[in-house]
Structure formats: C-alpha cells, structure tokens
Amino acid sequence: MAKKLKLRDVVVLGVGLHPFGRFPPEKTYMDLAKEAISRAIEDAGIKWRDVQVAMYSHVREQASSAGLLVFQEFGSHGIPMIGNIENACSSSSTAVWLATRLIGTGLYDIILVAGAEKMPRGPLTSPLRYSPERYLGTGVMMGLYAFMARRYMREYGAPIEAIAQVSVKNHRNGAINPYAQYKKVFTLEEVLNSRMIADPLTLYQCCPTSDGAAALVLCAADVASKYTSKPLVRIAGSALHIQKYSDRKKCIPQNTVRAAEEAYEQAGISPKDVRLAEVHDAATIGEIVQIEALGLCPEGEGWKYTIEGKTEINGVIPVNPSGGLQAQGHPLGATGARQIAEITLHLRGEAGERQVPGNPKVGVTECAGFGGVSTVHVLVRQD
Amino acid sequence: MKSFKESELRILPSGDFELLGIRCKDCQEVVFGLHPLCPNCSSPEYEQITLAKQGKIRNYTILYVPPHGEWKGPVPYVIAEIEFPGGASTTTQLVDIDLADTRLEVGMPVEIEIREADKDEDGESIMIYVAKLPS
C-alpha cells in the first residue's frame, strides 16, 4: 500500500487530440502524435521548452523508443523523456498516474503525457506469439468479453438487447464528436443483426481497431495560472489496481472497485457527486460492468440504467459522451489520455454539440487493460 | 510426444497425460497449472497435484472469426472455461462439436483429451489439451 502523503494539487493544463480513425500508411504514428502534442501545448499556453518530463505510451508499434523519436521532433532540451510506458489498454492512463505523483511530490511542475497508435486490423489476441493459446484460439479479447457478457446475463438476468443498447447510445454520441472514428448511428436491430463475432457480441458491440493520438499537459496547480486563463480541471483522484486471483469469484471487476474507492477517497467525494464518466467499453458489456464497479449505479442494474436512458448525454449519469471506444475508436496507447481529455473538455464547457448539460463539475475516467489492470481518475473543476 | 506447456500438461512415457495443479497449504486454494508461488496468496508452501481429466463447463462462447491469419482450426469454434473438482479452472477449446445439433449449457460435463498442435524441428508432436463433450 502506498503511503498517505499530502501531495500538491495537479491540474490538466492542456489537452490535444488527433482524430481517431483509419489513416493511410504514409500518415505515421509520428504524424498523429505530433499533431496531438502540438495541440496540447497550444491549449495549455506553454512552450515546448516549459515541459519538464515527457512520457509516451504505445502498445502495438514495433519500433523501440517510438516515443523518443516523436519528442525529438520538438527538440531535446535536457529533460527526462520516456519512450514507452506500456500497460495494455491502460498505458497512457498509467503514465498519467505516474505523472500526477511526480508533480504531486514536488519534483516537477509540468509533465507532458502522449499516447498514439497505428493498429493492425483483425482481432486483438494474447501477446504470446508461440503458445497453446494461439493454437486453441482462446486468447481472443472479444472471447473474454463474451464470457463476461454471458456471465453477467446469467447472474443479473440482463437481456442482450439491454447490453447492445450501449452501442446504440455510444454510436449516437460518436456521430456528433468530430474526433470519433465512427459517425454513423445504428438502430438496436442493426446492432443485434450485425455479424456475430463472439456469441452474444455482434460486430457493432465490439470496438474497432484504430489509429489516433492524444496528449495531455499536466501541471502543478499553484503555477497553472501563469499559463492559462481557462477553467482549471484538477486530477483529484488517481488510482491503479490489478485484478487479484480471488476476483474471478465476482462478475463485477474488483480491480475497478478498489481503484474507484481509492480515487474517490483522495478526491473527498462519493460516486453520487460524479456527473459524467468515460469508461472502457471495448465491448458493450464493458461499459455496464464498469459503471457498476465505479458505483455510478447499483450492482446488477447497469443494464437497466442503460435501457432507461440514464446514461445518455441528457441522462442522470451520462456515460461515454465521446462515443467511447465503441464509436470514438480505440488506439490502445492513446485511449487513457483521450478519456481524460474528454472529461476535461466537458468540465470546461468546451465539448461542443456533445457537451453534457448542467455545467458539470466532477467527472471520472476508467480504463481497463489486458492482464487485469484498471486505472481510475477523478477530475474536478476548480472554481 | 511432448507438452506445449509443461507447467500445465505432463506427457507420460506411456503416451498418457496428466493435468498439473497446486494445492496451497496456506490458503487451501487449488489452482490450475504450476506457479512459482500460490497465485492466490503468494505462499511458497504448496503441493503439486494432478487434476481430474473430467470437469464441467463454467462459461463458454462461440467465436465466428479466425483469431489470426495462420489459424488452421474450425470457424466457428467454441472456447470454454472448464472447472475441475476442487475449484481449479482453465480455458481451452471445446472440440468436435456439431454446433447445429448441440445445445451448449453451463454445467455440462466435459472430458479432457490431448491433441497435436504442432511438430518440433525433429518431427516430434507438441501436444495441447482440449475439452470434449462425453460421447
């Protein structure tokens, strides 16, 4: 267990995205990352030379030091730079978890976190290239999500129509997000009748493979006003937990339950204070179990919240107003930073057509990953 | 014949096989496969055991997409979480199923068999374990 230290407040000073999607081979991961970083630097009101540590996250890029090549395009001014912080789908949220502690302890004032990916097409599978799993076909991500869906449906009596409704909602949200990979609206029938991938998950219930980049400038709260006049969004809670062996006894992901408890305690809030969330909907069922794990609805009722419209942009607890991984896309290394950027925009009132109404002040992100990782961040606008 | 994953499957000189596991002396958990420490409580105090070759389906799904470009198996195919007496579990493929004629259900009994996955450079068979509904 970490020691309970009084840490300095850390804010999100700037956010930058490259739209998610599919781009031609000549548009490299470096091009995507450079654009996201340039936008984050501009949004933060800083100069590149103000950055004191730069961290990069990717999962699938073959090149070693992929991130260092990107950073050196901006110039190396003698600061520590890390070419890859990898923790599966939770990579850039893991970098944020580290960065908040490096700033919080007072070692640094400004840290840049960037994540980018150009993903190959096809199913995401276990990282082992030569393994029984490869011959058995067991290490397939959507197969594991199908297990989760079947178990959830058995334990809580949820119909597949309720789970598939996550896709309908998130594609509707993605359609009004200029950064989303998919801007197409689907009916429930279209989602259910799309090609079966891993029974009961159909194609439109599985996130796509994507290209994209996201960047964040994180800053000590006490110096932030030097750079920006925008509303400051504080990282009030930041926690990373790993699945335990005994967690398999529960359907709801206990790594997220523990991470949420820790992050809410740091922030001094309860789940009732949360006004919007971005969660890891790699498959539709992911969103339902994660909102339950975050305490945003009672256990076993995520599916009811979904069909009752409570997780819509205008609902009581809007979930994935960006379109989530389902519609915005999922370039693995970029997703964690992208979720934090999305919440920041909503808390600033800058999210455009998809803006969550009611001037929300508190949002939460949850990013899960293969291997049992879950990161939770609580974001609070400072007024 | 040799095992693809010796921490889970032991091929005997007779051609028969054993599924390996551990029983922790501290937390009493029975875990599939051999591990450096008990994955449940990190205790080094455990005994190696062999598991039953019969279990039951705890969860399953039917996959309709080949998992990768070099896939030689059937499509669609079934993967299942198999639970053994004592609580250990593993995930493997459920083979030789006529999907048009079989209604899969949680709790169904299965038997474990071994199959050749590959051959090594000397032509020796590399074996994996699979699950099958009893005939």
Write the SSE topology.
The complex is a heterodimer of chains A (about 375) and B (about 140).
Chain A: E1 10-21, H1 29-44, E2 53-57, H2 66-74, E3 81-82, H3 91-104, E4 110-118, H4 132-136, H5 141-156, H6 160-174, H7 188-193, E5 196-198, E6 201-202, E7 211-220, H8 221-224, E8 232-242, H9 254-267, E9 276-278, H10 284-293, H11 302-307, H12 324-328, H13 332-348, E10 362-369, E11 373-382
Parallel strand pairs in A: 2-3, 2-4, 9-10
Antiparallel strand pairs in A: 1-7, 1-8, 4-7, 5-6, 8-11, 10-11
Helix pairs in contact in A: 1-2, 3-13, 6-10
Chain B: E1 2-3, E2 9-11, E3 17-24, E4 30-32, E5 46-51, E6 54-63, E7 77-83, E8 89-94, E9 109-119, E10 125-132
Parallel strand pairs in B: 1-10
Antiparallel strand pairs in B: 2-3, 3-4, 3-5, 6-7, 6-9, 7-8, 9-10
Protein model, in words:
The complex is a heterodimer of chains A (383) and B (135). By secondary structure, chain A is α/β, with parallel strands linked by helices. Chain A is 36% helix and 20% strand. The mean pLDDT of chain A is 96. With 135 residues, chain B is mostly beta strands. Chain B has one domain (2-132). Helices cover 0% and strands 47% of the residues of chain B. Chain B has no helices and 10 strands. In chain B, strands 1-10-9-6-7-8 form a 6-stranded mixed β-sheet, with no helix packed on it. In chain B, strands 2, 3, 4 and 5 form a 4-stranded antiparallel β-sheet that branches. Chain B is globular. Chain B starts with a strand and ends with a strand. The mean pLDDT of chain B is 96. Chain A binds chain B through residues 122-123, 125, 131-132, 134-140, 142-143, 146-147, 150-151, 154, 195-199, 244-246, 248, and chain B through 4-5, 29, 31, 39-40, 59-69, 71, 73, 77, 79, 81, 89, 91-93, 106, 117-118, 128, 130.
Please sum up the structure shown:
The complex is a heterodimer of chains A (383) and B (135). With 383 residues, chain A is an alpha/beta fold.
